[in-house]
Amino acid sequence: MTEKKRTPSAYQRNALAPGLLAAAVLFVAPALLTGSWSSVVLFVASILAVIVGWFAWQARQWWWLPVFAAVAIIWNPVFPLPFEGPVWIGAQPAAAVLFLVAGGLIKVKRV
After folding, report:
1. Phi/psi zone of residue 85: left (φ > 0), alpha (ψ -120 to 50 degrees), beta?
2. What InterPro entries is this protein classified in (predicted)?
3. How many CB atoms lie within 10 A of CB 97?
């Protein structure tokens, strides 16, 4: 039996893991926001937005920076903005999709 050698990818996606984690939290956030977990959702979303923004900076994909700066500001737990209702509930999955897209598109060339 001949084994095929696997060629390593030329790129690495550093933002994929934090993007997946943030998306998982934000997809279940509408159920968590009604209880005492709302501050945890805010912390996770804002911290992971800063991390994904940092990986975008390292990958020189600067167009992601204002997007994730806005996510970090809107979901910040220190000075929470008074959002609620159906718009806020709809913003959670929208931000989750944003994290997934960025996690898949932000990549750097391996050296």
Report:
1. left
2. DUF6804
3. 12
